[in-house]
Amino acid sequence: MRIDIGGVRLYFDVEGAGLVPDGTAMAERPVIVALHGGPGADHSMFKPVLGRATEFAQVVYLDQRGSGRSDVSGPALWTWERWADDVVDFCDALEIDAPVVLGTSSGGWVALTIAHRHPERVAAVVLDSVMPGPAGERLEVFERLGGAEARDIARRYWDGEDVQDEWERVCLPLYSRRPGGDPEARDRLARIRWNRDVIEHFRRSLAAAFDPWPHLDRIVRPVLVLNGEDDPVATVSAARGLVEALPEGASELHVLPGAGHGVFREDPERAVALLREFVARTAAGKGE
Fold first, then answer.
1. What CATH number does residue 251 fall under?
2. N vs C: which end of the chain shows fewer Cβ within 10 Å?
């Protein structure tokens, strides 16, 4: 399905019921709005894992502007602020009053931007594999996981060199600690619709433009931070730094052992269980 939001058509999909029978009444379930990473990928990276969440919530998958099946728009509008505002406008159009916004990787950057830019518009925020560690620390993790070659390619890639093929061959497989021959993982990657222009724009300018730190004190809703123990880009120390910088009592961190980048992919059972508990507490708090 597509919806026009201020002149751009955004693709979305919905899984699970919003209303379910509860005795003689209909009970409203929480709504999770899922924001994919990349940037420039699409919502298919969440499927089928987030389908498990339909036991306790309705899941709305959104392809962000410039990604997947949504309109491409243009580089001038591929910004963290515009993507965040798009999500709020999208929720307004569908009358989703207080969603749980879940973002993985760069989608978490968008979710975090929503949380401080529109603090009252969300019920809660889930950040999966979000905060990049210092360059030196990330390079150390790549070397630990893939040796000196991986470290060198990662350094050159982040320095802006044209090493895309080497990056995809050597470094990208190290994002995951699951066996590389996993058929489900291969199929999931093959399904993704990539907009390479968006991810190149991210590498060359957008990544450096992301700076949420001065705005974290504006966040007023609960934040669940999930991180893989062996994530080579969103490092554990960076996740801890984010939680420490958020307002006291507003966040919680769970580090999943043996997991790489993207914990819903890496450890789906544990990640969805943590999501279930968090959503239940958020809904209970909302009702008090």
1. 3.40.50.1820
2. C
Distance from C-alpha of 9 to C-alpha of 66, rounded to nearest angstrom: 10
**Domain presence at residue 175:** no
Average pLDDT over residues 234-239: 96
Per the domain annotation, does 98 fall within a domain? yes
Quick one: which of 108, 121, 70 has its CA closest to 234? Answer: 108
Residue 25 lies in a domain: yes
pLDDT score, position 144: 95
Query: 10 Å Cβ neighbour count for 145?
Result: 18
Q: What values do phi and psi take at 70, rounded to 5?
A: -85, 165
- pLDDT score of 180: 59
Instruction: Using alpha carbons, list the distances in angstroms from residue 285 to 124, 236, 280.
Output: 11, 28, 9
Q: What is the pLDDT of residues 66-125, one digit of tens each?
A: 999 999 999 999 999 999 999 999 999 999 999 999 999 999 999 999 999 999 999 999
Q: 137-174: per-residue pLDDT in tens?
A: 999 999 999 999 999 999 999 998 999 899 989 998 99
For residue 170, tell me if it sits in a domain.
no
> Could you tell me the residue range of the domain that residue 102 belongs to?
2-133+184-287
Which residue from 90, 84, 106, 94 is spatially nearest to 219, judged by alpha carbons?
Answer: 84
15 and 50 in contact (C-beta within 8 Å)? yes
Number of domains in the chain: 1
